[in-house]
């Protein structure tokens, strides 16, 4: 029976070519190929980080007589940064839920909170870097420190660009509201932001925690 | 339902099923699980409650668990989103990431230990 109905609707579709279906998919926030394309971008970004993690893994004990992770890493600071990023993940989640409900102001509010948390994360990271450099633990000191700064600052750069994107979206939401394109952009940004949190799990585990007990 | 009704129907379900969506529940559950899965490794390392070997194994295991929690609860990867293609890409990437990292570390470890038997390791890896 279901087969028959299916056949019938297919026949009808064949009788009147349904190009409007494609258009609908195209302009649509969720059916659009943008989501899958953006996901593929994120996966390729993950491969960049895989290369950086591999480099760090190989060079992680190349201290060249310089400082070791245990001497220079401040775990409370890393724990603070991890907490900030984790909270920013759920605040972005709230923004997405507000988007589902069509509440522009609420979306903007949660996006603003997320952006501020992101800025706090970058701020703490820069403070950490400044301290390290002041102590003489500069990127050119040893292979370990080169790999450390490259990996962690690449992540920090991603977060910074995420903040820029959040600001752009705040302006777009202000000007155009929650239309289909903006919803699609918000969903891409949401994936980007959560993806950065996943990368950070790798960073705090493999760089900071495992570095400290090595 | 005729074919011409379809777009209208599609618009009504404007938050269609092609891409995974979060609910308040999934975000809160994901957040709580992540908080626990973050707190335990930090606590283990900062207090030194276990032997370093056991701590390392546990920390890595908890990180993998947390990455999976984020993937399901925050990134909404499942078998139905985008017709399962996000999951396929995700698994493929996971395999490549594992080969890249584990392979590099494995090969370079053996190079360090086998290729230069006379040199102290500090000097081998001492190149800045």
Automatic annotation (TrEMBL), chain A:
Chain ranges passing through the membrane? 38-58, 78-97, 109-127, 147-171, 192-211
Keyword Cell membrane belongs to the record: yes
The membrane-topology field of this record reads: Multi-pass membrane protein
Task: Quote the CDD domains the UniProt record gives.
Answer: Ubiquinol_oxidase_III
Coiled-coil regions listed: none
Q: Which UniProt keywords apply?
A: Cell membrane, Electron transport, Membrane, Oxidoreductase, Transmembrane, Transmembrane helix, Transport
Domain called Heme-copper oxidase subunit III family profile: residue spans? 1-212
| Location relative to the cell | Cell membrane
Pfam families tied to this protein: COX3
**Entry annotated with the keyword Membrane:** yes
Q: Which NCBIfam families match?
A: CyoC (TIGR02842)
Function, please? Cytochrome bo(3) ubiquinol terminal oxidase is the component of the aerobic respiratory chain of E.coli that predominates when cells are grown at high aeration. Has proton pump activity across the membrane in addition to electron transfer, pumping 2 protons/electron.
Question: What's the family?
Answer: Belongs to the cytochrome c oxidase subunit 3 family.
Give the quaternary structure.
Heterooctamer of two A chains, two B chains, two C chains and two D chains.
Record's protein name: Cytochrome bo(3) ubiquinol oxidase subunit 3
Query: Which organism is this entry from?
Result: Sphingomonas arvum
Its gene name is cyoC
From TrEMBL, chain B:
- Protein topology in the membrane: Multi-pass membrane protein
Q: Which InterPro entries match?
A: Cyt_c_oxidase_su4_prok, Cyt_o_ubiqinol_oxidase_su4, Cytochrome_c_oxidase_bac_sub4
Q: TM spans, by residue?
A: 27-45, 57-77, 89-109
List keywords of the entry alphabetically: Cell membrane, Electron transport, Membrane, Oxidoreductase, Transmembrane, Transmembrane helix, Transport
**Highest taxon above the source species:** Bacteria
Q: What is its main location?
A: membrane
The listed locations are: Cell membrane
Subunit field text: Heterooctamer of two A chains, two B chains, two C chains and two D chains.
What is its biological role?
A: Cytochrome bo(3) ubiquinol terminal oxidase is the component of the aerobic respiratory chain of E.coli that predominates when cells are grown at high aeration. Has proton pump activity across the membrane in addition to electron transfer, pumping 2 protons/electron.
> What family does the database annotate?
Belongs to the cytochrome c oxidase bacterial subunit 4 family.
- In Swiss-Prot or TrEMBL terms, this protein is called Cytochrome bo(3) ubiquinol oxidase subunit 4
Designated gene of the protein: cyoD
């Amino acid at each position: 029976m279901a087969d028959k109905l299916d056949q019938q609707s297919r026949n009808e579709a064949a009788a009147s070519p349904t190009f409007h279906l494609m258009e609908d998919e195209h302009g649509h926030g969720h059916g659009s190929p943008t989501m899958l394309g953006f996901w593929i971008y994120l996966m390729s970004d993950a491969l960049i980080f895989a290369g950086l993690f591999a480099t760090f893994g190989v060079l992680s004990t190349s201290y060249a007589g310089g400082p070791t992770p245990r001497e220079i890493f401040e775990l409370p600071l890393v724990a603070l940064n991890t907490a900030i990023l984790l909270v920013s993940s759920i605040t972005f989640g709230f923004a997405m839920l507000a988007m589902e409900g069509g509440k522009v102001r609420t979306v903007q509010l949660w996006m603003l909170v997320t952006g501020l948390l992101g800025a706090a994360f970058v701020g703490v990271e820069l403070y950490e870097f400044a301290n390290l450099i002041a102590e003489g633990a500069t990127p050119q000191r040893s292979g370990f420190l080169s790999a450390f700064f490259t990996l962690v600052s690449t992540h920090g750069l991603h977060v910074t660009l995420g903040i820029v994107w959040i600001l752009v979206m705040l302006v777009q939401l202000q000007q155009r509201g929650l239309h289909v394109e903006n919803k699609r952009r918000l969903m891409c940004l949401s994936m980007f932001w959560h993806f950065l949190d996943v990368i950070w799990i790798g960073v705090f585990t493999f760089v900071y925690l495992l570095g400290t007990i090595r | 339902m005729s074919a011409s009704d379809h777009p209208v129907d599609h618009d009504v379900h404007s938050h269609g099923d092609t891409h995974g969506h979060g609910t308040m529940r999934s975000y809160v559950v994901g957040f709580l699980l992540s908080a626990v899965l973050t707190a335990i490794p930090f606590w283990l390392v900062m207090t030194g409650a276990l032997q370093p070997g056991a701590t390392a194994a546990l920390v890595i295991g908890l990180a993998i668990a947390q990455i999976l929690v984020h993937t399901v609860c925050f990134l909404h990867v499942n078998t139905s989103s985008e017709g399962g293609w996000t999951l396929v890409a995700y698994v493929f990437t996971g395999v490549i990431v594992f080969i890249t990292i584990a392979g590099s570390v494995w090969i370079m470890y053996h190079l360090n230990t086998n290729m230069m038997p006379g040199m102290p390791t500090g000097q081998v890896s001492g190149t800045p």
